[in-house]
């Protein structure tokens, strides 16, 4: 309708002068033009659905990583540390077993952790919405703090159980519930050994992180001391008044990258230790497949069989059973 009244469309604001000419102004240039949306219940439900999906997917991918690494690393222990007895492609074969047999177990474990994380987010939302109510009620504020603290501890415990359950899933090929029960039993019965070795391992990993961060900080300082960064007259575009910010950013990036790489070694320590505990449980406290270096580190002498070695077969059972191992004759 060619009238003098302004016509508001989706992207443009048209102001007609007459029936033949008009001026067009973009919505970004018009202060009275804006976009809006209504946060209705459908959008709220979709946001909650996508949030839970994000949490579940994150935990699921972490579980796939744990099971794949544990399956590859456990072959080192069950072959007594001998490279000749290990599979040719342990990582690829472990990934194949994970995708073919263990995705259901990983989905269940990640779903449990995601539910706890989602409940914590809901608690945080309720806490913010009831701030005014909690200001005048000490009991309500205390109860809310206790519930949030308990849920945080529950999440940490579930993540710890999941991590060890995934190791048992990769080694034994059993379901999640059975693996979680076995992992808890092994941890309780070997708490002293696991605590001592984990303390030493965590200390070494922390030292490794510090070494990487310190090395990157030294490199950043040496680079910041070059003429291209210290000569304001000759190089005004690249002059640094202070190297503090670049060095701190380098340290932060180094810490994140070092943590990701050293997490593989941390997983290796947990996998080997849990396999050792399982070996001891099967053989009445006398491990039969432990590598000599591990026995020396733990301070446990090999008893009984001294010449036996075990070899991990290249394939699992078709029903998801643990890898079949062939035992050589004992001299």
Provide mean pLDDT, rounded: 80
Query: What is the global morphology?
Result: extended
- Beta-strand segment tally: 5
Helical fraction equals 55-70%
Work out the strand percent. 5-15%
Q: For the largest beta sheet, what order do the strands appear in spatially?
A: 1-2-3
DSSP summary: helix tally: 10
Major sheet size, sense and barrel closure: 3 strands, antiparallel
In angstroms, what separates the terminal alpha carbons?
101 Å
Low-confidence residue ranges = 1-24, 301-331
Q: Give helix and strand order, one letter per element, not per position.
A: EEEHHHHHHHHHHEE
Q: What is the structural class?
A: mainly alpha
Rg over C-alpha atoms, rounded to the nearest angstrom: 30 Å
């Amino acid at each position: 309708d060619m009238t003098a009244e302004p016509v508001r469309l989706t992207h443009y604001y048209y102001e007609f002068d007459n029936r033949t000419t008009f001026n067009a102004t973009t919505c970004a240039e018009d202060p009275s033009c804006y976009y809006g949306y209504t946060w209705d219940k459908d959008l709220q439900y979709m946001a909650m659905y996508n949030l839970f999906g994000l949490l579940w997917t994150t935990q699921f991918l972490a579980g796939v990583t744990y099971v794949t690494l544990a399956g590859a690393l456990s072959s080192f222990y069950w072959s007594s540390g001998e490279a000749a007895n290990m599979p040719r492609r342990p990582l690829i074969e472990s990934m194949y077993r994970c995708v073919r047999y263990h995705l259901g177990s990983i989905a269940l474990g990640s779903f449990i952790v995601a539910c706890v994380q989602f409940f914590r987010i809901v608690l945080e939302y309720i806490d913010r919405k009831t701030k005014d109510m909690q200001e005048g009620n000490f009991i309500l504020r205390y109860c809310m703090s206790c519930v949030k603290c308990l849920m945080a501890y529950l999440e940490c415990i579930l993540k710890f159980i999941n991590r060890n359950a995934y190791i048992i899933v990769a080694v034994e090929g059993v379901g999640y519930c059975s693996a979680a029960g076995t992992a808890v039993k092994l941890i309780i019965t070997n708490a002293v050994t696991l605590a001592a070795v984990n303390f030493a391992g965590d200390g070494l990993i922390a030292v490794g992180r510090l070494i990487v961060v310190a090395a990157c900080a030294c490199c950043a300082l040496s680079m910041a001391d070059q003429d291209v960064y210290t000569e304001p007259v000759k190089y005004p575009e690249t002059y640094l008044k202070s190297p503090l910010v670049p060095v701190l950013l380098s340290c932060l990036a180094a810490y994140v990258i070092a943590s990701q790489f050293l997490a593989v070694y941390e997983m290796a320590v947990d996998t080997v230790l849990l396999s050792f505990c399982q070996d001891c449980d099967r053989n009445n406290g006398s491990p039969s497949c432990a590598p000599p270096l591990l026995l020396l580190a733990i301070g446990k002498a090999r008893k009984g069989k001294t010449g036996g070695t075990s070899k991990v077969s290249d394939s699992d059972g078709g029903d998801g059973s643990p890898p079949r191992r062939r035992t050589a004759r004992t001299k």
